[in-house]
Design goal:
Blueprint: E1 8-12, H1 17-28, E2 32-36, H2 42-49, E3 54-56, E4 74-78, H3 87-94, E5 98-101, H4 102-110, E6 114-119, H5 124-136, E7 143-145, E8 157-158, E9 165-170, E10 184-187, H6 195-198, H7 201-213, E11 219-222, E12 234-238, E13 244-252, E14 255-261, E15 266-272, H8 278-292, H9 297-303, E16 315-319, E17 323-328, H10 333-346, E18 352-356, H11 361-375, E19 380-383, H12 400-403, E20 410-412, H13 418-425, E21 429-434, H14 443-453
Helix pairs in contact: 5-8, 10-11
Binding site for ATP: 120-126
EC number: 6.3.2.8
Protein name: UDP-N-acetylmuramate--L-alanine ligase
Length: 455
């Protein structure tokens, strides 16, 4: 990819979490940047209101600015989530512009730095953000392209021109991570997912094998994962012994205390104030990579308690005498199981009510028995309709497939009736909204609802 003559960069799908990080990067670097997205979001509002981005939500090629009309000086970055028939994307394609997927551009940018890449079907966003936080709060430093909004920094992009390291979330969707060549890599999970892209779990595993083969240096896997074609540096775990592990886990006033045990290092009595036992495991992976990148044990001890997490990962929005309201991005059965198990452990005495919005018809069709099993960890499940994202409906595939197999009480509601149902029926306990669709648009509604009801 030749970027030397590029003056302007247009993003088709600019509101995506990965796309927006790239857009922010190029704007900071002095390029003309604009973009299109289907719908406005809190992220795009921040970009337009506070960062002066030009973003259109109208799929009309007439909305493309004059500075982007010179195809010899314009790079177009797009995401596969945008339909091929999109008019703006079609204009660029039909007129001979240089079109590149987000992953290609990210791969190009990563080659000038030592890339620390976190891959996995779940756990990667929190682990990536935690690793970036540990490096940023050390003498090592880093730039970072995150797959979520860091609660510490309020952004998905960190830039450090002095550091040799760049932390990258390596996304397996559409084989995007195969554009990366990490210095150090982690694989957190390789569960069946994105079968609309891969077809079978075996094909997904092959892609992870390819990613591993592209890793130049150390490679760490969660305990229980194995690769056939690549030697690994070691496994990590929480609560069970392996090459690198968290030991003596205990809950202390809403935080986790644990010891980090490595092959040649021990760091005693670390504190993690971010909820969820699964996040002790994520922290173990982040600490392991940070140590290999040169962060000291004392820097880790000082920084870890200050980590606030990632937006939409165990996000607590309201805490009243009667209701604790939390939002989480979990959208795969294994993620849901890990999340609900964690909140059960943290607040065992509370009634657990979960509102879940399935994401994609294909994923629902592939995993509806597993979704039902995971969601049955709750005391009551509120099911919304499937969020289609990039897909057309599949006949017979609705949230009823999950509802019919739940072993706990369930109610199905429309998005229109959702707030009224919650207002009437969620009066105490732990309330969790979950999903990767647009269920997060209800966060301010419920936050205000519960905080107001408490006064």
């Amino acid at each position: 990819m030749d970027i030397d003559n590029v003056k302007a960069i247009y993003f088709v799908g600019i509101g995506g979490i990965g796309m927006s990080a790239l857009a922010r990067y190029f704007k900071i670097m002095g390029y003309h940047v604009a973009g299109y997205d289907k719908t406005e979001s809190p992220l795009t509002r921040k970009m337009t209101d506070e960062e002066e981005f030009d973003i259109t939500y109208e799929d009309d090629e007439a909305r493309i600015g004059e500075v982007f009309r010179d195809k010899t000086r314009t790079l177009v970055v797009y995401t596969p989530a945008v339909p091929k028939e999109n008019r703006i994307l079609s204009f660029f394609r039909d007129n001979g512009y240089a079109l590149h997927k987000r992953a290609e551009v990210l791969g190009f940018l990563s080659r000038s730095k030592k890339a620390l890449c976190i891959a996995g079907t779940h756990g990667k966003t929190t682990t990536t953000t935690m690793l970036a936080f540990l490096l940023k709060n050390s003498h090592v430093g880093c730039s970072a392209f995150l797959g979520g909004i860091s609660s510490n920094y309020g952004t998905n992009l960190l830039i450090d021109k002095e550091s040799d390291y760049v932390v990258i979330e390596a996304d397996e969707y559409d084989r995007s991570f195969l554009h990366l060549h990490p210095e150090i890599a982690v694989i957190t999970a390789m569960d069946a997912d994105h079968l609309d892209i891969y077809g079978t779990h075996e094909e997904l595993l092959k892609a992870f094998e390819e990613f591993a083969l592209q890793t130049k240096g150390q490679l760490f896997l969660r305990k229980g994962l194995e690769l056939k074609r690549r030697e690994i540096t070691g496994h990590y775990a929480a609560g069970e012994k392996t090459d690198y592990y968290a030991d003596r886990l205990r809950v202390d006033n809403g935080s986790f205390l644990f010891d980090y045990i490595g092959r040649d290092i021990e760091i005693r009595d670390l504190r993690l104030c971010f909820p969820g036992r699964v996040n002790v495991e994520n922290a173990t992976a982040a600490i392991t990579v940070a140590l290999h990148a040169g962060v000291t044990a004392e820097e880790i001890r000082d920084a870890l308690p200050l980590f606030k997490g990632v937006s939409r990962r165990f996000d607590i929005h309201a805490k009243t005498d009667r209701v604790l309201y939390m939002d989480d991005y979990a959208h795969h059965p294994r993620e849901i199981e890990a999340s609900l198990s964690s909140v059960r452990e943290m607040w065992p005495e509370k009634k657990l009510i979960v509102a879940f919005q399935p994401h994609l018809y294909s994923r629902t069709n592939d995993f509806y028995p597993d979704f039902a099993k995971s969601l049955s960890l709750a005391d009551l499940v509120i099911l919304l309709d499937i969020y289609p994202a990039r897909e057309q409906p599949i006949p017979g595939v609705t949230s009823a497939l999950i509802a019919d197999r739940l072993s706990v009480p369930c109610v199905r509601v429309t998005k229109e009736d959702f707030p009224a149902y919650v207002r009437e029926h969620v009066t105490d306990g732990l309330f969790v909204t979950m999903g990767a669709g647009d269920i997060d648009r209800f966060i301010p509604v419920f936050t205000d609802m519960f905080n107001t009801a408490n006064h």
